Automatic annotation (TrEMBL):
Gene3D superfamilies: 3.30.70.270, 3.40.1170.60. Residues 226-333 form the DNA polymerase Y-family little finger domain. Residues 17-139 form the UmuC domain. It catalyses: DNA(n) + a 2'-deoxyribonucleoside 5'-triphosphate = DNA(n+1) + diphosphate. It comes from Bradyrhizobium archetypum. Poorly processive, error-prone DNA polymerase involved in untargeted mutagenesis. Copies undamaged DNA at stalled replication forks, which arise in vivo from mismatched or misaligned primer ends. These misaligned primers can be extended by PolIV. Exhibits no 3'-5' exonuclease (proofreading) activity. May be involved in translesional synthesis, in conjunction with the beta clamp from PolIII. CDD domains: PolY_like (cd03468). This is DNA-directed DNA polymerase. PANTHER family: BLR3025 PROTEIN (PTHR35369:SF2), BLR3025 PROTEIN-RELATED (PTHR35369).
Amino acid sequence: MRPPPQAGEVKQVFPSVVVAKQHNAILIHSLDEAAVRAGLSIGLPLANARAICPELTVYDADEVADRKTLEDIADWCDRFTPLVALDPPYGLYLDITGCAHLFGGERALLQIVSGALGRRGFAVSAAIAPTAICARTLTRHASGKIVADGGEAEAVSPLPVSALGADDAITAGLRRAGLKTIGDVASRGHHEITARFGASFTALLQQALGQGDGPISPRKPLPDYIVEKRFPDPVATDTVIALNLSALAHMLVTAMDKQGKGARKLEASFFRTDGAVRTITVEAGRPVTKPEVIDRLFRERLEALSDPLDPGFGFDLIRLSASRTEIVVQQQRDLDANVHDNDELSALIDRIAARIGGKRVVVHLPEDTHIPESAVQAVAAQHHLAAAAQAAWPERIEGEPPLRPLRLFDKPEPIKVPFATVPDGPPHQFTWRRVTHAVVRVEGPERIAMEWWKQNGDGPTRDYFRIEDEAGLRFWIFRDGLYDGEPAEAEDEAVPPRWFVHGLFA
């Protein structure tokens, strides 16, 4: 063991690298500045690296953790622009068009982002350019540079060809051809470069030179409407947070009202000063056009959170967005009482869904099938309330007993039948849940064949009976399969029919 450094001594920093197995070899995946000064580089085998630098500190690569860290940084960058795209394994694109002035200009924004990430222990290389590829190219050899529109070619021409980030084979081929800088490659004809290295590399080169631009794919879709409030001093009290969220709701409704739209899905994002981001989502069954409704939905949602909103040292940004909107259809509300009833029902469903989740509030719709357990479909009430109001259910015949039980089991439960009338008669008694019931009245059978086109042609046949026992309890039972009157073959014994209870009438 090395002795601890004495007072006044400078602690020695040993080079560190992260290694990963590639092509059956352990290669350097990433490294720090001390390793670069020692002569190491990415892609160098670990054995060679140890020979060059015996004091090397080695860590195994964790791609899952790296991806998670990159996504966390992307969440933090959402405070600067909602258009953030990933550039794996360790890059990000930020589209700052139209929002740099909020932070004092492009230079100030670049310093804010780089400084904040640097204080959190990250080594940051950043640049601003009119095209994404040009900015990425500059980050490799000219960090901190800002390129004006039209100056892309001049900015990247002196850089080595490796800054383009092309395949190693292409980079090596360019160097063998004597093309060491991007300017050297740009001086050749496009057709010549394409014939030698492919059209994709030519497109990459053109985007780096500003002669074309490729779209970036934001990790989150851009909301239809977005409003936000930035705070010079972080806010942490519930009252101040609620007041600012209410003010944002008024701003959002005003913006949507200009185009006659209402919000169906709303998201409130809270950005903490330590970089953590919390997003709360609520949905509505009908387009929301009133700020007080938005306030109520978020209040219900925040109060029902199992993990309460923790401001930590405070929020420096609160953002409210409408990620899904619809055109508001004006209705006559003065004379139609049903409209008011539907509004109240929809508001009630929205409040309950905000507390317990939209998937837990359901309505039932009829299905066009004769299979009992498939005749009803449970769907989210917020999205199918209008369909449920117009659903046509089979009408009961007056004076006749119900054909279907009041309580239908999700899964039929097996019963024991010691003997029954064959070939298609009812049982004389059965045992269900350890209780034996003697049958005194029977109605049936009602034969229901399964949907053979969904059962690979081997669907069973059910005979349903409405029966009543000596205690007056009424059951809906069925026999799964048919009795076979012919003796079974010894090597292919027939499986006897099974009996189930499927529901209760009372």
